[in-house]
Structures are given as C-alpha cells and as structure tokens.
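Example for tutorial group B:
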C-alpha cells in the first residue's frame, strides 16, 4: 500500500488575549514612529519638551531674583508643581488627538477605537515617566535633592495626575468626535487651568474666598497633593476623595460615551 502522506501539524492558534496584545503593540509602535518621525531623536524631543518647560520657568525666576514661596530651591518648587499638571495636560490632549490622527485604522476589523485610545494612553504614560526621570537627574546634577520627604504621597499625587489626564482625555474623545474645533478650544482651556492651578504660586496664600473656588479645580488638588510629599509642613488640606472621584467620574462618562455614542458614529 502507498504510504500515506503525513498531515502537517497545525500551528497553535493565538488566544484572544495574545491577539489583542499583538494589536496593541503594533498600534503603540505605529504611534511612536508616525508622531516622532521614526527616529530616536524625534522621541527624545517629545520626552525633553516638558523638561525644557520646567527649567525655563526656573531660569526666568532665577534671573529675576524671585525666591521660591516655600523651601530653599526654586527648581524643586516649580518642578513639583509643573510636572503633575503637565502630565495631566499632555495625556488629556494627546488622547484626544489620537482619534483624529488614527481614525482610518478603525476600518480594520481587528482595531477598535478604544484600542487606539488605550495605546496612546500607554505611550503618554511611558513618555511622561521618562521625562520625570530626566528632570530628577537634572536636579541631582545641579545639586538639588529631588527625593521628597514623603515619597508615597508625592507618587500618589503623580498617579492621580495620570488618572485625571486619562479621564479628561476620554471625555475629549467624545467632544472632538462632534466638534473637531475643540482641539484648539481645549488648548486654550488648559492654558487657563495652568495659570490658575498654582504652578508658580501657592494658592493657599490667596484670600479664602478665591482659594475656596480654586479648590474645585482638580489640577490645584493634584499639585498640592504632590507638593505635600515635598513640603509636609505646608498648611493645606487636599480633598483626596474629590480628586479621585472627579477623575473616575470623567473616565466612566468618557468610556460610556465612547461605547454608546462615538462608536456608533464610526
């Protein structure tokens, strides 16, 4: 009898999780290559941009001879305020832009709008963390001790800034789907938030009536949260519940809008 040909062994099928991680990995790589010019230098510029922002503030106030409102280091004071608010602003803005720039990818059945948003969130978290490491390294190089007195409090404030950026970013995804001009409007809005959030001053030194209303700005809360890690004696009280609930509420609302409104439009 003729020998029967052996059937080729079937390749193991990928699990749904493996397939999803593969798609997510591909989206992150594409995002980084298209946004940063496909080079390490392009990515380095994006990482260093918030670093330049922080130390430009320091340079301006040093040359003007303006002392830090608290502590002995101007660099540490401005960094403790600028880093969390910039992390919040960059994530919330770039998540919104991801939908505009990567919408054609959602025509593929393997790629969902949420995957595009989630991949951009991961890229921004990594980018922000690398920027934070560079800032810490520069502070050490100029002779400033960047280690907070209460590292746990400072890190929790930084993570709260990330969560707030994700929540506001998902809301922006829904808004920009109806009103693309919101991309410009949000930039103007974040400028107001930045100026009034307390990066360059201590809000608690303002009159009580003004300070009371500023506390409704969650950016003020996250800056004070981080600064409490560096200046434990600062006479402020952070409303942790309000900050976290605000971030979670925006995230929940944004995800619901993405699922039931924005997804039906694509």
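The residue assignment follows.
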């Amino acid at each position: 009898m003729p020998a029967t040909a052996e059937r080729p062994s079937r390749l193991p099928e990928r699990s749904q999780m493996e397939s999803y991680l593969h798609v997510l990995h591909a989206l992150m790589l594409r995002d980084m290559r298209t946004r940063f010019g496909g080079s390490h230098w392009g990515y380095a510029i994006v990482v260093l941009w918030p670093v330049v922002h922080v130390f430009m503030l320091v340079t301006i106030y040093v040359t003007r001879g303006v002392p830090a409102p608290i502590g002995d280091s101007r660099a540490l004071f401005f960094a403790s305020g600028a880093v969390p608010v910039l992390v919040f602003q960059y994530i919330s803005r770039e998540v919104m832009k991801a939908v505009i720039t990567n919408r054609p990818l959602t025509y593929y059945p393997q790629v969902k709008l949420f995957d595009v948003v989630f991949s951009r969130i991961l890229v921004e978290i990594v980018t922000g963390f690398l920027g934070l490491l560079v800032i810490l390294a520069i502070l050490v190089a100029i002779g400033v001790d960047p280690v907070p007195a209460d590292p746990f409090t400072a890190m929790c404030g930084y993570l709260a800034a990330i969560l707030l950026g994700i929540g506001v970013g998902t809301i922006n995804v829904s808004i920009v789907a109806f009103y693309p001009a919101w991309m410009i409007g949000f930039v103007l809005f974040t400028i107001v938030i930045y100026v009034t959030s307390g990066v360059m001053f201590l809000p608690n030194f303002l009159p009580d009536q003004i300070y009371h209303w500023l506390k409704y700005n969650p950016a003020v809360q996250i800056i004070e949260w981080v600064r409490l890690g560096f200046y434990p004696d600062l006479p402020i009280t952070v409303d942790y519940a309000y900050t976290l609930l605000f971030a979670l509420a925006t995230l929940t609302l944004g995800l619901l809008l993405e699922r039931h409104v924005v997804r039906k439009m694509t």
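DSSP finds nine helices and no strands in the chain. Compare this with the pattern of hydrophobic and polar residues in the output above.
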